[in-house]
Amino acid sequence: MHARTVWFAAWLAIVCLLTSRLHSDEGTTQQVSGTPVVLEPADDLRLLEDANRVTLEPLAATGPRRFVAERPAVPARSVLRTTVDASKQQLQNPENANEPQPRRDPKDLGLPSPPPVTVPSLSPAPLDLDVSAEPRPSGSTNTPRRSQPRTHGSAPIDMNVTAALPVISIETANPVEINVGKTAKYQIAVKNLGDITAENLQVIATLPKQVDLIEATPQPTDRADDKLHFDVGSLDAKESRLIELQLLPRETGAIDLAAMASFSVSRRATMHVRRPQVTMTCETPEEAIYGDKVTFVLVVTNVGDGVADGIVVTPQLPSHALPDRESNESLPLDWLRPGDSKKVPVTASAIGPGILEARFTVADASGSESNVDAKVRIRRAVIEVAADGPRTNFVGREGVYEIRVSNPGDTAAENVKVVASLPTGLQLTVLGRPVNFDRRTNTMTWYLESVAAGGTETLPFKARAVTEGELAQEITASADRELYSDTRQLTQVMSRPKINVAITSRDGPLAVGDATEFQIGVQNVGTKAAEGLRVKVITPEALAAAISDDYVTDGNEVAFSPMTLAVGETKRLTFRAVGREPGDHIVRVILESQSPSHSLSAETSAFFYDSQDEPRVSSLK
Q: In angstroms, rounded to a whole number, what is the distance separating the alpha carbons of residues 61 and 577?
């Protein structure tokens, strides 16, 4: 029982000594006399590892077994302690440093064999600068890599990340046994197992008290008491250096010689300073039709040599061109690599006079800015309708009317429709162009394919006035793109009586004393009834009017009763007279009207000759 306790204490001291010299943060590998130390968890132990400590704890409460290895901070030191007679191997060539070495048996150290306990490995902990926070695949090496972290709305950042470290191995070789008073050759091999250069490498060998240094190759750069300092300088990746010491022991017993290495690591990072520069061009039509949508295609290009981010495009458009938005809204972009372009469409309405002017500004987070102006000519068709016709007309008379559709705009008006509503007092008689006529509504409709810019289309027709009064035509014209125009044409239609009067004598030449009959015709050829018509006849002294109930005679005048004539009515009046003297005698009829107030007259003649016959005046009644 006592022997087992002694063995366990000795074995635990060796393990603690070895693990206290191991470190992982600098990526170093430690070996004892060419044999790497491997720590593995046993069946009844578990491995607890944090940033600076590795701990083995028992899984079961079988006793106070707890092993701790500390991880020293940078700068790293590789320490190996060996005993001159602890090994029967001698390192002859540093190139053989990586060859596997046989595991040492504790019996060679004069210790009893311990129970099978495996110590966990303290493998180097790689320095991980993972900017993108992506998981490193299993088995990856510490090699430089590029990471591109991305966030919404910002450009990716290329990062040069280097996580490699030198791995320094120190191996020793010495004779198994030596006699007192004889020199022993002691070799220290330093090798860089990593992938980058170790700089400012120094090896410090601590000599035991019972030995003297006879010779060192190379010579130490400094010696303080029992410590030899060897300035190795830079040690490239996979390169090794050999230090040989000639030692002379003065006493018998085990000789421990400690060797420690220290080094530094430097990295150079190059950062290129670049400048983004955003420019912008605008692709837009030169012309647009009023009411259409106009699309400005903005082409934003990064002509600089750096990534442009925080890009914002700001349009400046007149308010009438943005009926769907209250104001101009900024348009953010993500980012653009050098030489890349992105198209940004901006839509506006072609509304307003003449020219649609717009300005667009693009800027990025670095302060680069560019402006572009755009102009679009807005073409617009205009419909104007007008009508001509008689301002005054009379019932029954035809009037010539003309509708004119004009386009004073700068583009054609398409699908023009003209509608004229006739009043009931007008009767359509003649058409100049084909038309759709609806008798029920008394409307005319013309369909025109187009009216050219600056052109005029004429639509003539004739209509007869059938009633008096103010007759109004309602005329409208419409076309595509909500074009519209209307007008009204007025005609004042009047009516009045028109009286014709005539007088004739039925007989030819008559002898003095004979009687003749005169006929008076009164006709209303106007458009209105004639009222209060008075007809009177004036005879010469040579004629004597006969007496009748149809008229009244007063001297040489014959008067008829007042009368009314309807439109188109004719009345005939007669009276008789006897010639008293020979000759050509003139008889005049006079027609007087109250509404309108005017007077008409007509004349005729009767010829009488002298005869030998007796007068027959007595025959008149």
A: 174
- Enumerate residues 6+ apart whose C-beta is below 8 A from 496: 394, 526, 527, 528, 596
Which tokens in the block code for residue 538? 């004036």
**The whole model's pTM is what?**
0.48
Are 499 and 593 in contact, with CB atoms under 8 Å apart? yes
Quick: pLDDT tens for 440-475.
999 999 999 999 999 999 999 999 999 888 999 999
List pLDDT tens digits, range 19-49: 554 443 433 333 333 333 334 444 444 444 4
Please state, in angstroms and rounded to a whole number, the distance separating the CA atoms of residues 18 and 285.
82
**What does the alpha-carbon distance between residue 348 and residue 376 come to, in Å, rounded to a whole number?**
11
- Report the candidate in 417, 385, 391 with the shortest Cα–Cα distance to residue 403: 385
Asked whether residue 141 carries a pLDDT value surpassing 50, the answer given is no
Of 513, 531, 523, residue with least CA distance to 580: 513
Exposure string for 544-583, b = 16+ CB within 10 A, e = fewer: bbbeeeebebeebebebeeeebebeeeeebebbbbbbebe
| Through-space distance between the first and last CA atoms of the chain, rounded to whole angstroms | 197
- b vs e for 297-319, b when ≥16 Cβ sit within 10 Å of the residue's Cβ? ebebbbebebbbbbbebebebee
Nearest-5° Cα angle at 119, 91 to 195:
55
Domains of the chain: 2-125+167-264 (2.60.40.290), 278-377 (2.60.40.10), 384-494 (2.60.40.10), 499-619 (2.60.40.10)
Where is 7: in which H helix or E strand?
A: helix 2-19
436, 444 Cβ separation under 8 angstroms: yes
